[in-house]
Amino acid sequence: MDVLKRKWPDLTPISRQNLWNSLLLQLHTSRLVYHRPPVRMSGDEVNPAAVPVPVQDVQGDGRWMSQHTRFVQECKDAEGWELVQCSVWRELFSPLHAINFGIAGDTTCNVLWRLQNGELQNIRPKVVVVWVGTNNHEHTAEQVAGGILAIAQHLISCLPQAKVVVLGLLPRGERPNPLRAKNTTVNGLLRSWLPRLGSTQFLDVSAGFVHSDGTISTGVMFDFLHLTASGYRSVAKPLSDLLLQLLDETPEERRASLV
Known about the structure:
By secondary structure, this protein is mainly α. It has 9 helices and 3 strands. It has a 3-stranded parallel β-sheet, sandwiched between helices.
């Protein structure tokens, strides 16, 4: 721990402990994993939202690691996955042979760790959709946006033929609040930063969620955070339209993929 404190003095105690647990886990499982340097903020400050760490097994049932292991295995076995059994998924995304690697509660740090530990092996997707950040409660808006940027950069590095779509964070809370304002700031930073990566684009899917009086309805978010079926459809439709455009290859691209 002292080594981590000297190397990354700006990490919070929680982030430093998570990083330490990540290193112990890799040593315990005898897995040698190369981690790209975390995205830095201004100067030499390390962005804690771009440090890959697994979720601590606080409850002791190993569910998060079990899901990660399942995703890694399905990268090897699957041929057209349908992991989300809901009508919207079956209607819009199952025909595209989509796979869902989402785990509830994950932060940018957790997603980075999973991507660097097997979840990109044995797959060659044409498009990758990234939607993460609203659970980064301990990080600033700039750190969250930097963590999402680090994920996009890692995807481009590992999957150079794929196009990356980053979904904007949704508003949260029944009425205007600091977390909703932070998500809005994150989206603004992503709009500015992502075009520099080239094969990455930002998609805002928040249209219609906030009423003119600033409130959010339980019709789209039953607890003002998690989506209802109607809320999922509001997000899925513009995403589906974009995916169909991205997957509509030119004749040259189609011939190249056949080769």
